[in-house]
Amino acid sequence: MRHYPSHIDLAPAQQAQGVVRLPGSKSISNRILLLAALADGITHIKDLLASDDTDVMLAALQSLGIQWQQIGDSQDYTVPGAAGAFPNQHADLFMGNAGTAIRPLTAALAVLGGDYTLHGVARMHERPIGDLVDALNAIGAQIEYTGAAGFPPLHIRSGQITPQGLQVRGNVSSQFLTALLMVAPLIARQQSVTITVVGELISKPYIEITLNLMRRFGVEVERDGWQAFTIAAGQRYCSPGIIHVEGDASSASYFLAAGAIAGGPVRVEGVGRDSIQGDVRFVEALQQMGATVTLGDNWIEARSNGILTAIDADFNHIPDAAMTIAIAALYADGPSTLRNIGSWRVKETDRIHAMATELRKLGASVEEGADFLRVTPPAVLHTAAIDTYDDHRMAMCFSLASLDGFAQKGAHVRINDPECVAKTFPDYFEVFATVARSGVI
Ligand SMILES: O=C(O)C1=C[C@@H](OP(=O)(O)O)[C@@H](O)[C@H](O)C1
Ligand SMILES: C=C(OP(=O)(O)O)C(=O)O
């Protein structure tokens, strides 16, 4: 069901102020759904994210025979766990463009056995999965590419798994290691399993989310830094009973940046200082740019202190929220550089190229490197029609260019194809309008 028209026009808004209740975290929602499906017992999930990415995970689990139930119209679900094996051994699964669905499910289905096909939208078929397939096939899985080698779609058949010497490369996506960690207890029945990371690992905080949630479902992982992860034999996933999904820290970045750019205060609720999501560290970048940020147990608030200070920093640990910094850079007192963001090239779109192209429409000078972006703000933001490349974060980030900063007036911004926000935040523009009240026409 389409929610938005073909474009949304945002008029300049003088101030951002208000309180936003965040939708649930995508990373936590999809991990919990899979762990609950694999666990012993019934899991009661509170505040699951409602979005395209969670819909594909829910639909896939249903096709695999997991009879989850939504409680009325709420975002609370019950998931009866299948105790380490899916009831259906044959399924054709549509994965949309959800990395957090296809990567862990590929690993689970490959080690559990059966006959499965996994495919997604056109862009999903351009997003790499080769490092994960190599790791799994090396221990006896039977995964074939039915399109281009290294990319979905995939055909998975039953293999003979001998889980010794499991290793994976981590420099393209941390989701490959997450996928192997999540299925490791399923293959560590008799003997412990060690996963060795080959070379550099990117997006490290997402591994902490994985380990934290595995622990909530009763599985402990011993680790040697970021190099090796060992799952002792005989551990099973057990339902924690009730589990609550935190608000999404990446989604929080748009509202916190709004407060930092255009006065504030803007408060987000649902995530706070004890969050398990690495993207809460986005606030450190805002603070470095001169904003005042206050953190509570379950809320974060940002406000401006005048023109933002330009930033030059490594954003490898927060690749998603870093896109928001590229827009905040339009309001800074000089050029900002975002470093070590090479993974942007293999996400919903080539985000380095898309970001550079669209920032230039607003009048910025942008230098695009293999793994960095340098943004020099223009004297005056230009009126622009922003293309979104079917990337939710492009649509959400660029809404911020409609805000008045201290030295920079907000632009008239047209967001083309805003529907793409459904990937993680289906009513983003309604919520944005409550903060930038005069901004939506
Ligand atoms: O594990 C996760 O939940 C995610 C990991 C990150 O991906 P990479 O590890 O590919 O950078 C992030 O960009 C993505 O939105 C969610
Ligand atoms: C990279 C993202 O998604 P995915 O989980 O599909 O990798 C994202 O949400 O920014």
From TrEMBL:
Record-annotated Enolpyruvate transferase domain positions: 13-431
Residues reported to bind 3-phosphoshikimate: 26-27, 31, 173-175, 203, 320, 347
EC number in record: 2.5.1.19
Annotated phosphoenolpyruvate binding sites: 26, 99, 127, 175, 351, 393, 423
Functional pathway: Metabolic intermediate biosynthesis; chorismate biosynthesis; chorismate from D-erythrose 4-phosphate and phosphoenolpyruvate: step 6/7
Catalytic residues, chain numbering: 320 (proton acceptor)
SUPFAM superfamilies xrefs: EPT/RTPC-like
InterPro entries registered for this protein in UniProt: Enolpyruvate_Tfrase_dom, Enolpyruvate_Tfrase_sf, EPSP_synthase, EPSP_synthase_CS, RNA3'P_cycl/enolpyr_Trfase_a/b
Presence of keyword Nucleotide-binding: no
Top-level taxon of the source organism: Bacteria
PROSITE patterns: EPSP_SYNTHASE_1, EPSP_SYNTHASE_2
One Pfam family linked to the record: EPSP_synthase
UniProt entry keywords in alphabetical sequence: Amino-acid biosynthesis, Aromatic amino acid biosynthesis, Cytoplasm, Transferase
Keyword Amino-acid biosynthesis listed: yes
Compartment(s) of residence: Cytoplasm
Primary subcellular site in the record, as a coarse category: cytoplasm
HAMAP family membership: EPSP_synth
Subunit and interaction comment: Monomer.
Protein name (Swiss-Prot/TrEMBL): 3-phosphoshikimate 1-carboxyvinyltransferase
Organism: Actimicrobium antarcticum
Lineage: Bacteria, Pseudomonadati, Pseudomonadota, Betaproteobacteria, Burkholderiales
Encoding gene (name): aroA
